[in-house]
């Protein structure tokens, strides 16, 4: 089954964690704009050098940069999960235009809902694999071997923007610039809310049930 999904929600809501699990389950591509940007920063590309100052401050990278990046990544793709995009109304409108050109309507937009205190705890305890970008948590989602990625064994690192100060800024940016997308996609009839405060396995189960009901209903 080919799906085209957007994962929407604040930083730390568990979008990346679920996108990785579900992209392999559905056999579709995972497109995480934050992961692509971090890769470019690490490799010191022109895009990475331009994006880094915004990312370090917890601000959004300019729309034109992000839209161009997504267009080239999605060329020729029939199924995908996008995570961390769109983040502004301008990005959502450009994405709609791209999907119309590809004749590839979205299956659904999943809204990950988590209370704010939990988001802070998740982000300040997050450790990621610098190689495959999989995400762990010291207490909520620990790796099998302390400090090592389950998938590839690489040593885990903390993100430089997961400090309390930058996390607070990212929450404010989410409220101002990204939260308006909830009404945007609700109006399109695409939005499904997910109880993302629950444990990882329960969230995965809820998403799978919600999507099979939606596809069963012919939506
Ligand atoms: P996002 O991509 O939305 O920013 P992540 O998937 O990176 O979020 O998850 C943020 C942090 O919370 C990580 O440390 C991750 O291991 C942890 N996490 C993810 N899902 C859950 C969950 N359902 N319950 C508790 N912790 C979670
Ligand atoms: P999180 O989900 O934890 O907030 P991401 O990995 O999605 O983190 O994003 C990290 C940073 O990369 C953001 O704070 C922002 O600077 C930049 N970024 C990622 N995706 C976008 C986007 N779609 N538009 C603008 N900036 C983005």
Q: What order do the helices and strands come in, and which of them pair?
A:
Blueprint: E1 4-8, H1 15-26, E2 29-32, H2 33-43, H3 46-57, H4 63-74, E3 80-83, H5 89-102, E4 108-113, H6 116-124, E5 126-128, E6 135-137, H7 164-178, H8 180-188, E7 191-195, H9 200-216
Parallel strand pairs: 1-3, 1-4, 2-3, 4-7
Antiparallel strand pairs: 5-6
Helix pairs in contact: 2-3, 4-5
The chain binds adenosine-5'-diphosphate (ADP) (2 copies).
One adenosine-5'-diphosphate is lined by residues 9, 11-17, 122, 125-126, 135-137, 140-141, 199-200, 203.
List its traits.
single chain; 219 residues; alpha/beta; Rossmann fold; 5-stranded parallel sheet; two-stranded antiparallel sheet; 9 helices; 7 strands; 51% helix; 14% strand; binds adenosine-5'-diphosphate
How would you summarize this macromolecular structure in one to three sentences?
The chain is α/β, with parallel strands linked by helices and 219 residues long.
Structure report:
The chain is an alpha/beta fold and 219 residues long. The chain has a single domain, classed as P-loop containing nucleotide triphosphate hydrolases (Rossmann fold, 3-Layer(aba) Sandwich), CATH 3.40.50. The chain is 51% helix and 14% strand. The protein has 9 helices and 7 strands. The chain has helices at residues 15-26, 33-43, 46-57, 63-74, 89-102, 116-124, 164-178, 180-188, 200-216, and strands at 4-8, 29-32, 80-83, 108-113, 126-128, 135-137, 191-195. The chain has a 5-stranded parallel β-sheet, with helices on both faces. Strands 5-6 form a two-stranded antiparallel sheet. Strand 5 and strand 6 (135-137) form a beta hairpin. The longest helix is centred in the C-terminal third of the chain and has 17 residues, at 200-216. The radius of gyration is 17 Å and the shape is globular. The two termini are 14 Å apart. The mean pLDDT is 95. Bound molecules: adenosine-5'-diphosphate (2 copies).
């Amino acid at each position: 089954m080919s799906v085209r999904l957007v994962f929407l929600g604040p930083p730390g809501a568990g979008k990346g964690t679920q996108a990785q699990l579900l992209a392999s389950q559905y056999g579709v591509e995972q497109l995480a704009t934050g992961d692509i940007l971090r890769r470019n920063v690490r490799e010191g590309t022109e895009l990475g050098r331009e994006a880094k100052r915004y990312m370090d401050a917890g601000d959004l990278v300019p729309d034109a940069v992000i839209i161009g990046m997504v267009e080239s990544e999605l060329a020729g793709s029939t199924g995908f999960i996008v995570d961390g995009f769109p983040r502004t109304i301008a990005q959502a409108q450009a994405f709609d235009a791209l999907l119309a050109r590809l004749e590839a309507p979205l299956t659904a937009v999943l809204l990950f809902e988590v209370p704010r205190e939990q988001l802070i705890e998740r982000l300040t305890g997050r450790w990621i694999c610098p190689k495959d970008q999989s995400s762990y948590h010291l207490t909520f989602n620990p790796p099998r071997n302390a400090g090592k990625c389950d998938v590839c064994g690489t040593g885990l690192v903390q993100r430089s923007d997961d400090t309390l100060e930058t996390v607070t800024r990212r929450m404010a940016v989410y409220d101002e610039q990204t939260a308006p997308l909830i009404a945007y996609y609700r109006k399109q009839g695409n939005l499904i809310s997910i109880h993302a405060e629950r444990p990882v396995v329960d969230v995965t189960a809820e998403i799978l049930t919600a999507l099979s009901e939606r596809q069963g209903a012919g939506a």
